[in-house]
Predict the 3D structure of the following.
Amino acid sequence: MRRGRLPLTALRAFEAAGRAESISLAAAELSVSQAAVSRQIKELEAQLNLSLFERIHRGVRLTASGHRLLTSLTQAFDNIDDALSEISVPETETLLISCEPAFAALWLAPRLAAFQDIAQNVDVILNSDSHIVDFGNDGTHLAIRYTSERQNWPRVEVRKLCETHLSAYLSPKCLASGHISTPKDLLPLPRFHEDTREDWCNWFEVAGVMPPDTERGTVFNDSAVMFQATLAGQGVMLADDLLAKSAAERGELVRPFDISIHCGSYWLVSRNFSRLSKNANGFVDWLQKELRKS
């Protein structure tokens, strides 16, 4: 097919629908109606004389031909997007970073001013979110993610930033309220948990203490909120040493025992590190240096 006759609008509609495997999500991404997306795909199928999707209950599924076309189109559109970004040189660059909420609140945000001092022509947008990032469409340049096991994601590149370890932390007020000289002395205290109650059982096992038959206590889905409850003297938490270090150095938190458990890693994610801008690479270098100092 000659380039001048390429059905670019239809190809764009198909690529969005194929990537999301959803007509409705493609319509929302392209800011058009579902009917418009469906019409473009049907016209493309008619022009190619083959089916790109199987219509299933409340959705669509790519055919083998659809998978083949989607792979080529997504790569082509990514290359076009990269080329446009490379030739566009704004006076001030906006760097959009998606970051795990706790890491953003407790570690990155307090240090961002130091990066801005050395990159004054960069405006940082810090998106505190742990959802999957669509680098090709939402404008995100870099993402910082935590995982306990996973080490790769589709269509992106990753670099390990650091390992994470959990230790027991409590406020000086909570420490003074009782006699705490051994790990066993933490058993009577209210214990806070992030996402799961299993971590405390693992920590007590490493500490040589028989954990209670039933672990209780408040479960938080955001460790930044758990930090606030601990700082208020309401209980003891297992926290990432990296995130708790600053508060411990200020005397706001106490780590009573030199006992920790490994709990995963933080990763830096990009669609393609080799295609990052000079300023984005500068942020990567700065981030890695700051983590080495922490």
Notes: The first strand starts at residue 53 and ends at 56. The chain has two domains: 3-87, 92-294. The mean pLDDT is 89. The CA atoms of residues 149 and 203 lie 18 Å apart.
